[in-house]
Amino acid sequence: MNLPGVKVLHDEAAIAARVGELGTRITRDYQGKELVVVGVLKGSFMFFADLVRAIDLPISIDFLGVASYGGNTKSSGVVQLTSDLSHPITGKHVLLVEDIVDTGLTMRYLLDNLATRHPASLAVCSLLEKPARMRVPIEIVYLGFSIPDEFVVGYGLDHAQKYRNLGFLGILEGAV
Ligand SMILES: O=P(O)(O)OC[C@H]1O[C@H](OP(=O)(O)OP(=O)(O)O)[C@H](O)[C@@H]1O
Ligand code: HPA
Ligand SMILES: [Mg+2]
Which residues form a coiled coil (predicted)? Predict the structure, then answer.
């Protein structure tokens, strides 16, 4: 799909190559461990679907829903849990999968929330990070790409709920 106002940042081939590398590392690091891969909806849905297929382990999957951007390109600063995990994670190794760590507020909220449930370990895999906007430090163990201070859409990421179905990552021109 070619859209006016959206400039390609990473195309489908570049994303697939990076996702494959992340899957290989995760497969190696979690050998012999009971791993639950948790997708943060909605933004992570496409990355999550590709990533779990690149992990060669008998994993479980679960989802959390959060929202804080609404129709804006700036975080409201208030993170709302819109849906919770369907199973307990106590004693399990948990890998949280996000599309983007921007200010870091969503991830900080989720890490604090999930830590109270006493998982065996808790690590973050994010397709993107935006260092220029980071307000709270987050350790991203598995990172796809570090991106410039632009509002990005596609491959799951939205602006006002649109663009999620693009297969590539694009910059929404004029948004920042
Ligand atoms: O680091 P932050 O500044 O907190 O931003 C990152 C979060 O914002 C987006 O979610 P959003 O609230 O837009 O919900 P969505 O996943 O449904 O698009 C994105 O998917 C991350 O969850
Ligand atoms: O750059 C972004 N694009 C889409 N959603 C987002 N949520 C935080 N940052 C972004
Ligand atoms: Mg969003």
Answer: none
Q: Judge whether residue 39 has pLDDT over 70.
A: yes
Give the domain extent around 81: 12-149
Among all bound ligands, the one having the nearest atom to the CA of 104 is 1
What is the greatest pairwise CA distance in the chain?
48
Q: What is the pLDDT of residue 1?
A: 67
Which ipTM was obtained for this model? 0.98
CATH number at residue 122: 3.40.50.2020
Place of tokens 């859209």: 3
Predicted TM-score (pTM) of the model is 0.96
Atom of ligand 1 nearest to the CA of 157: 18
Looking at every residue in the chain, the average pLDDT score rounds to 96
Are 121 and 93 in contact by the 8 Å Cβ rule? The answer is yes
Residue 122 CA to residue 108 CA, distance in Å, equals 12
